[in-house]
Amino acid sequence: MKKREPVSEIMTKSVITLNFKDDLETAERIFKTKKIRHIPVVSGDEIKGMLSYTDLLRISFADAVDEDDDSVDSIVYNMFTIEQVMAKNLVSVPSTTTIKEVAEILAKKEFHALPIVDEDKLVGIVTTTDLINYLLKQY
């Protein structure tokens, strides 16, 4: 196993992002069509927050109500903005951070994605799934 490999080796470099002008229905559509769980919220190249699919589930009554899921989601999503729902106090690391260091951060924190930022610019994202896939390749 490579001990000092940088996270840039396993991070997703073509990051799908949202901005404050996008709505939560757009976010949900991206989550479902792209089959992803985390979307950085940016202003230009600067990351401002992170929206997770779990964040949307927390505000949605769709699972608790026996109605048409789409209509319930639309009503709830119109009550909130991305800025209100996203995580704002982010931990980020530069692309030179080792995979081991990233694994230690994700193991200790209660989130499953870490933005990769170089010189205040979002350059990638790494998730717990990326780490698991990396470990699986080692065997």
From TrEMBL:
Record carries keyword Metal-binding: no
Keyword annotations from UniProtKB, A to Z: CBS domain
UniProt domain CBS: residue ranges: 11-67, 86-139
Classification via PROSITE patterns: CBS
Gene3D superfamilies named among the record's database cross-references: CBS-domain
Name the record gives this protein: CBS domain-containing protein
Domain of life: Bacteria
Organism of derivation: Bizionia argentinensis JUB59
InterPro entries on file: CBS_dom, CBS_dom_sf, Diverse_CBS-Domain
